[in-house]
Amino acid sequence: MKFNTKTIHAGVHPDPSTGAIMTPIFQTSTYVQHAPGDHQGYEYARTQNPTRQVLEANIAALEEGKHGIAFGSGLAALDAVMKLLNAGDEVIATNDLYGGSYRLMTSIYGKLGISCKFVDLTDPANLKNHLTDKTKLVWLETPTNPLLRILDIEKLCAIAHEAGALVCVDNTFASPYLQRPLTLGADLVLHSATKYLGGHSDVVLGLVITASEALGQRLYYIQNAAGAVPGPQDCFLVIRGIKTLHVRMERACQNAAKIVRFLQKHPKVDRIIYPGLPSHPNHEVAQKQMRDFGAMVSFDLKGEDPAAGLTVLQETHLFSLAESLGGVESLISLPAAMTHASIPREDRLASGLTDTLIRMSVGIEDVEDLIADLNQALEKV
To answer: Which CATH class name applies to 3-242?
Structure first.
């Protein structure tokens, strides 16, 4: 079964009791048993829910894995991955990553005896130089948030595995439509399904996928024991969203490429960050491991006036000023003041995230309208 067909059919079957083609929302907390322990495979909804299981089977197939495990949010999914570790273990993570991931790793797990090092992993040699016998997990984001750096998953996995460390790839920005890290050697893949998988800005949910039977069973145990599960309504919404993932991603990527060409010609735009540009330092890696270059675009304006960026953010009409990404509608944000405010300013600047960097999540509107909206906002700077 090819990818586009999998989005609609993998793990999804008509309801046997009614023939309903859409997976029902099993809005129940418990299940009646014939006798103690004699049931139909379901005991309690934290442990099992039929709607959730369909979503988990669907995403496992899309990522070429065996097990999908759903959580209440992307950060709850990361929390479950961190629970695979023990006090005294070490995580090496890319130094350009989502602010919420940084906060969880440092503020929560740092206090529990798990240390985190944040390293520029665009050069795989940097990973080798920082690995120790305490390193048990290598955390990759690619493309990174918000500087859109591309990490060589295959090379980094080989180095990490040689040292006995697991590799988890946050695949939120790419989605399985653009890249599938398990096929490149990763042990775990994580998604904030709030973004491209849900696709409609109406759900919060997280997913972890693995091809390992042992890791799958450990994560199912954590899912049940810690209880950070999504409700069946949220699972239904992500199942529905995934059905159009391939057509949404194709359109959004096309729009992003056209917007980048517009920005390249605009006299008020300075640095443009987009993996599809030959000038992007990781362009060749992106070509190797991604189907397309994604629908996220970051850029700086010329000059250092922070008010200029705020003008653009406040003057767009179709690009809505909001956190998050990956919906059908286009969004625009200032990461330093929004999604990455939890990262200390000196750390942000050291990684290349300026106070004036603008990040766009390009949606699936008519691209001519999006370009006109950006143009009129830029003209007011």
So the answer is: alpha beta
Alpha-carbon distance of 198 to 142, in angstroms, equals: 19
Contact between residue 148 and residue 97 where contact means Cβ atoms under 8 Å apart: no
Helical pair 213-226 and 74-82, crossing angle rounded to 10 deg? 110
What value does the CA radius of gyration of the chain take, rounded to a whole number of Å? 21
Residue 258 CA to residue 297 CA, distance in Å, equals 11
Residues 198, 238: contact at Cβ < 8 Å? yes
Active-site residues, by number, are: 46, 98, 170, 195
The SS3 of residue 23 is coil
Mean pLDDT (10-residue bins), the chain, 381 residues:
97 94 97 92 95 98 98 98 98 94 97 97 97 98 95 98 98 98 98 98 98 98 98 98 98 98 96 97 98 97 84 95 96 83 77 83 98 97 89
Q: With a threshold of 0.85, does the pTM exceed it?
A: yes
Sequence spans of domains, the chain: 3-242, 245-378
Architecture (CATH level 2) of domain 245-378: Alpha-Beta Complex (3.90)
Helix axes 367-378, 306-315, angle to 10 degrees: 140
